């Protein structure tokens, strides 16, 4: 069965960096685009970034563009999110999600919590 | 950006009764390939989101048939024919037709 397991969350000071990982299994990872989506405390869902199946193109929300970088290693079945210049408003649970059709999500991971605080 | 507007934001429902959530997009979600990439997600308390419905009306694997989706263009609806206790949570519509991917604000379904 499809499994997505995020890791790498934690507490970081404003201006700091963090790299999230999402380990995928149960499907042919190299054939599917992938998203990162976040959810602030008590808030709704916010799309963060998308990367094509082969890593050839990536897209970002305006709120993270220039600070976050999505990447993937298809040989390791792993998705990444490099987060730099972190701000308190980046505090959220970060989910990775697999693409079903075009940009639609199907499977989601359990999420990893990132807290940006001094 | 496509703005997704859900109504109501909160829906108290009696067990066994139907429930309905509306979602309106600020522009058409019909893609150039002819498909409409509007889906519905369920988020139970303390859980990650889970896909219920994709491309307006297709139930995802394992989703009970009491859930159904309908609509076209800019107006969409999620219906639950008979609400069960396990349906409590927040429901989101989301569009995957164009960047940036956007979500509705969420509708909280609770039992009366």
Describe the structure.
The complex is a heterodimer of chains A (about 120) and B (about 110). In chain A, about 0% of the residues lie in helices and about 50% in strands. Chain A has no helices and eleven strands. In chain A, the strands form two sheets. In chain A, strands 2, 4, 5, 6, 9, 10 and 11 form a seven-stranded mixed β-sheet that branches. A four-stranded antiparallel β-sheet of chain A has the order 1-3-8-7, with no helix packed on it. In chain A, a hairpin with a 5-residue loop joins strand 4 and strand 5. Chain A is globular. The model of chain A has no long low-confidence stretch (mean pLDDT about 95). In chain B, a hairpin with a 2-residue loop joins strand 7 and strand 8 (about 75-80). With about 110 residues, chain B is an all-beta fold. The radius of gyration of chain B is 13 Å and the shape is globular. In chain B, the strands form two sheets. In chain B, strands 2, 4, 5, 6, 9, 10 and 11 form a seven-stranded mixed β-sheet that branches. A four-stranded antiparallel β-sheet of chain B has the order 1-3-8-7, with no helix packed on it. The interface of A and B includes residues 45, 61, 101 and 111 of A.
* Helix/strand class of chain A: mainly beta
Please tally the β strands of chain A and state the result. 11
Order of helices and strands of chain A: EEEEEEEEEEE
Look at the structure and give the mean pLDDT of chain A: 97
* Range of strand content of chain A: over 45%
- Identify low-pLDDT runs of chain A: none
Subunit arrangement of the protein: heterodimer
Order of helices and strands of chain B: EEEEEEEEEEE
What profile does the largest beta sheet of chain A have?
A: 7 strands, mixed
The dominant shape of chain B is globular
Low-confidence stretches of chain B: none
